[in-house]
Please model this.
Amino acid sequence: MPTPSAPAPLVSVIIPAYNAAAFLGETLDSALAQTYPNLEIIVVDDGSTDATPEILESYGDRIRVRRQTNAGQAAARNFGARESHGELLAFLDNDDLWDPEKIARQVALLSRFPDALAVYCDHRAINAQGQPLSSSGALGYQRASGDILKAMLLSCCIITPGLVLLRRRAFDEVGGFNQSQLMRGHDDYDLWLRLATRGSFIYSPDTLVSYRRHNQQATRQKHHEMTMARANLDSLMAIRDDIQASEDRDLKDLFAWILLELYIDSAWALRQMGKLAEARRIAASAVSQRPTSIRAWQALGAALKPRWKKTIP
Model:
């Protein structure tokens, strides 16, 4: 915690909400139950058509509500950040829950590492009814602390935005969440990746977040799986200049390998979605990057074949 003579920094909690009536009340209650004394909670209603507005109204002036025409989570998070005043930012999804000490512990940790851009904690998984599915995610996902860029290239070690507390200045410097259509459902990984090229993330093994798994969440949808490689490819291209400027040879080699894998995976996924022209372009880029890769040539060969539709007699 800050020293007694130092004021507690304001933490802005931003919650995007689109047709979130099923879980929103529990999420808001967990945010309002934080023991940290200096908090503002901003909910951005992203064009909901269910009972979300009524639920938000029932909380009165304990929260601030902003509304926008439906534009996706990234746009809602960016809108909330613009409307906020905190030195520190926390993004909580409308179906996840925080333990009461979550923000207090993370503010204390961030104050111990003044050069760090962000801190993140661990999570437990719960189901739609709030029952525990796992006590910790530490064994299922790679964890890294300090320079997390290599770990992030291999896999996303921050499974949900609610794990993170970050400095506003860092968020503003990288331009916030990417609001493009392609990045819908993938915008958090894209942000962490860009931030990781700028500075350190401090990991704490404290399990302070309940990450809810249910059939309606974006990461469970087929479209999310089909677009992941293509979105991640764009995310890597956005940091390519930073990687090339690095003197870390291992980092450059890892980046080149991951980039090739994403070119190949993207080409296959695009072909499955019927986007043959883009699949051919991406596969050709894979071959250009690594002409000796059999998998790259296989992806290009598949992309060049037309996809025949079955005719029904």
